[in-house]
């Protein structure tokens, strides 16, 4: 801002405009006529949909949806029944979307702008928009049936209803184009209405309307060929790459400069309305994401819901879909709108009623755990970048909760008469908190790969620390499943254990039971752990073999980078904090040759294959998995299988290279978002 001079045009949000300065000026000049031809009306409908998709992608209402002059004064469109019904329904839909996103409160300014800037987002009579839409839909449907019928039916139709346009040969095509757009608009309104019902009571009906909307979306796409055929010679046609209508013509009745004076006193954002193909692709993905939400079984427990949310985020849903998911999960602060989170946690802990009734420390712990879990669920519905920042902030809350669980245990043993029940309960609480803390840390580290935060020189240390977190999670997961007392190690004891075996484990990997609930998650952790170990030794060997070039940093050392990456995790009791010296002791295996390191890495990648088979078998028996989680797990298995296979091939090439060959190895995340594939090239 300091580089701009006072009175610079960039500083004026609404003064230097090329269009009309006011809405009244635009109307007086005839920029938004009410009497439109059918091709012009279709173009208006299409451009409104493109503006709506652009708005939901983070741009301001004033420069997108309400750049439509018809929406700025919907009552003015009353003489044109088709335009009036479409505009009213659009305004009502936008109001519901804006309200849902504001209530969910999981967005940043880059995601969505909730400010209306005084625009008429809500209008009187919008609740009756569906009746208007049904009326005009019936008229157009009757006209279309007349066009498809025989000669007698056509004569009767012409007597009952006035044709949409003058050319009888084009009447059927235009009726079809108008009708599928009206029905899509209607289905979208129904979806928003039914998904807004509490406790998931409208999800089944919403799914039916999603199928209708997807079907009409295909009809809209198929009408593009008819609409773009035989353009009028005086029509303004945009290129197909950037055109926002099916016909390719520029829609009339739009001017983004009219509302510039309503924007904040800052330089306006550069608005590029989505192209027609991008608009259709956006709505198709949005409907598919909403359908996955509607498929969520309302009988799932807390742990299954957490797994669903994590798998759902892998699909990269848009903001509105994430907002609807968050409102469904935490309606009125209750899990799925049914039970308070504290009660849901009691079911997870399997706490005896006698303990909950008499032990006040356990009650206080459950209340605090419910607050932190609610915060975690809300964070998991945010975008990837914000999610990682928020996870880093709540790590200390989970650390405090772990300390509270230990205090709860000590107080309960001394002051309660419940004996073994209290001890067993508190052990379960500690194991659960430890497992969830490891899960948050794991997510925090893995999101760094998706956001491209780590340099190649940091890969080895990140995979080393991630492996430590995974083994800790596996340890406490099995402790919770077997209902045994989890051992919480101090950093000194971890260091001693780490010296026993080269490399990797701060905690001894426990034996995996052959059956049990959530055993697929145990096998998944084992797959992740073996992948991390494979990369640790692969990167170490490539560095020592001078086949992996690191850019030397002059601003900080490797030890300083280690501290910057993991200082936040050192404040936690679990996973046990690991220092830079632990890392160097584990990875600087100078007594092992480079070829042995290559073989060690190859063995770990081979172990992934075995665990993937076990993962597939256990997932097939896991009845608690939702359809979304099952699909994502199958995709995860394929991705890890490809990562393991391709890296084994790369290791074989590097291992067999002759002394005269000069190879260079690079990494690319082409198969999995967190685990790369080695690419071997001759330098």
TrEMBL record:
Location (main, coarse): cytoplasm
Q: Which residues form the NAA35-like TPR repeats domain?
A: 293-678
| Domain called NAA35-like N-terminal: residue spans | 1-121
- What parts of the sequence cross the membrane? none
Ranges for the region named Disordered are 485-511
Asked if the Swiss-Prot or TrEMBL record annotates the protein with the keyword Cytoplasm, the reply is yes
User: Cellular component GO terms, alphabetically?
Assistant: NatC complex
User: What domain of life?
Assistant: Eukaryota
Q: Which Pfam families match?
A: Mak10, TPR_NAA35
Where does it live in the cell? Answer: Cytoplasm
What keywords sit in the KW lines? Cytoplasm
Q: Which family does it belong to?
A: Belongs to the MAK10 family.
Q: What is this protein called?
A: N-alpha-acetyltransferase 35, NatC auxiliary subunit
Its lineage opens with: Eukaryota, Viridiplantae, Streptophyta, Embryophyta, Bryophyta
């Amino acid at each position: 801002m300091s580089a701009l001079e006072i009175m610079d045009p960039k500083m004026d949000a609404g003064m230097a405009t090329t269009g009309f300065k006011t809405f009244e000026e635009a109307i007086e000049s005839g920029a938004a006529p009410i009497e439109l031809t059918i091709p012009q009306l279709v173009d208006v409908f299409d451009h409104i949909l493109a503006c709506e998709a652009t708005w939901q992608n983070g741009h301001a209402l004033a420069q997108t949806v309400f750049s439509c002059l018809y929406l700025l004064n919907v009552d003015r469109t009353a003489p044109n029944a088709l335009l009036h019904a479409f505009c009213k329904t659009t305004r009502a839909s936008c109001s519901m979307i804006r309200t849902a996103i504001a209530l969910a409160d999981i967005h940043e300014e880059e995601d969505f702008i909730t400010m209306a800037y005084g625009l008429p987002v809500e209008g009187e009579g919008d609740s009756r928009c569906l009746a208007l839409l049904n009326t005009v839909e019936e008229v157009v449907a009757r006209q279309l049936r007349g066009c498809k019928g025989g000669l007698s039916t056509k004569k009767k139709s012409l007597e009952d209803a006035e044709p949409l346009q003058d050319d009888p040969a084009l009447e059927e095509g235009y009726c079809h184009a108008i009708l599928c757009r009206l029905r899509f608009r209607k289905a979208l309104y129904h979806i928003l209405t039914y998904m807004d019902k509490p406790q998931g009571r409208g999800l089944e009906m919403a799914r039916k309307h999603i199928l209708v909307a997807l079907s009409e979306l295909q009809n809209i796409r198929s009408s593009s060929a008819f609409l773009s055929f035989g353009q009028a010679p005086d029509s303004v046609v945009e290129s197909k790459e950037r055109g926002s209508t099916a016909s390719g013509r520029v829609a009339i009745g739009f001017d983004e400069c009219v509302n510039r004076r309503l924007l904040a006193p800052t330089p306006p954002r550069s608005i590029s309305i989505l192209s027609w193909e991008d608009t259709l692709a956006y709505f198709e993905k949005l409907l598919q994401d909403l359908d996955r939400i509607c498929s969520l079984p309302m009988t799932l427990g807390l742990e299954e819901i957490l797994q669903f949310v994590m798998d759902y985020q892998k699909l990269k849903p848009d903001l509105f879909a994430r907002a609807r998911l968050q409102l469904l999960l935490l309606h009125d602060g209750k899990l799925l709108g049914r039970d308070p989170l504290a009660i849901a946690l009691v079911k997870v802990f399997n706490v005896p009623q006698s303990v909950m009734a008499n032990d006040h420390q356990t009650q206080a712990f459950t209340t605090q755990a419910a607050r932190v879990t609610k915060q975690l669920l809300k964070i998991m519905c945010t975008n990837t970048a914000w999610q990682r920042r928020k996870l880093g902030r709540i790590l200390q809350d989970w650390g405090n909760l772990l300390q509270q669980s230990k205090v709860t245990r000590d107080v309960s043993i001394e002051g309660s008469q419940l004996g073994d029940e209290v001890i067993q309960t508190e052990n379960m609480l500690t194991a659960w908190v430890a497992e969830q803390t490891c899960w948050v840390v794991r997510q925090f580290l893995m999101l760094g790969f998706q956001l491209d935060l780590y340099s190649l020189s940091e890969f080895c240390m990140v995979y080393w620390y991630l492996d430590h977190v995974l083994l800790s999670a596996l340890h406490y997961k099995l402790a919770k499943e077997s209902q045994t007392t989890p051992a919480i190690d101090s950093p000194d004891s971890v260091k001693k254990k780490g010296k026993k075996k080269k490399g990797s484990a701060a905690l001894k990997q426990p034996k995996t039971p052959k059956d049990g609930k959530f055993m697929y998650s145990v096998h998944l952790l084992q797959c992740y752990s073996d992948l991390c170990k494979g990369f640790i030794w692969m990167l170490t060997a490539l560095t020592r073999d001078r086949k992996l070039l690191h850019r030397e940093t002059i601003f900080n050392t490797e030890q300083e980078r280690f501290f910057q990456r993991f200082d936040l995790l050192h404040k936690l009791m679990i996973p046990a904090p690991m220092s830079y010296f632990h890392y160097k002791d584990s990875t600087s295996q100078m007594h092992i040759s480079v070829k042995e390191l290559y073989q060690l890495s190859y063995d770990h990648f081979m172990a992934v294959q075995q665990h993937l088979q076990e993962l597939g078998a256990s997932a097939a028996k896991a009845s608690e998995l939702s359809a979304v989680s099952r699909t994502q797990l199958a995709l995860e298995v394929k991705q890890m299988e490809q990562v393991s296979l391709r890296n084994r091939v790369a290791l074989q090439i590097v291992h067999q290279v002759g002394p005269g060959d000069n190879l260079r190895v690079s990494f690319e995340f082409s198969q999995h978002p967190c685990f790369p594939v080695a690419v071997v090239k001759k330098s």
